[in-house]
Structure formats: C-alpha cells, structure tokens
Amino acid sequence: MYSKTVSKSRKVVHFPTLKTVLAIEKAIKNADTAISRNQIIENLPTKPMRSTLNVTLDYLGKKGIILETKKGFIWTFNPNKRLATAEKGAVEV
Prior knowledge:
Elements: E1 4-5, E2 11-12, H1 18-29, H2 37-43, H3 50-62, E3 66-68, E4 73-75, H4 81-88
Antiparallel strand pairs: 1-2, 3-4
C-alpha cells in the first residue's frame, strides 16, 4: 500500500480527490454556523474516510480558507484585498 508522510506524526493512507475537496469546501461554506466533522460527513453526497477528511481540513486550514473553532469549522476566505489589509492591522479580541 502506498502512503506518504504529511507530518511527523501522521501518515496518509488515502488522499482526497478534487471532487472531495470541493464538496467539503461547499459543505463548510454553506453552513450557517460552525460545523463539526461529523456534520460535514453527513452533508456530503459520498462519505469519505475520516483520514481523508482530516487531510482536507488540514489543507484548507493551512491555506486560510477555513478556521477551526471550539464548536467546529467556519468559512473565513474572503478575496477582498481591502479586507485583507484591514485584518493585518487589526487587534485580535
């Protein structure tokens, strides 16, 4: 079986397809509030492996598209350049 190491502590057995990544993005983006891993899986047309979901969430988090909170994941991506400039000088509360 082929596997690659993503980080020192996790080996990836199954990589997500583009279709899976886009479906997970859509599920998080369309959620009104923070959405948990289980809710993401329930909202998808196909049920990915938990490790595949974790790899995808890790990727989206590193790209700054989503944010993990205590209640789940929220969509944070906004392509507005003025907003990005304002965020750089903002104070976190």
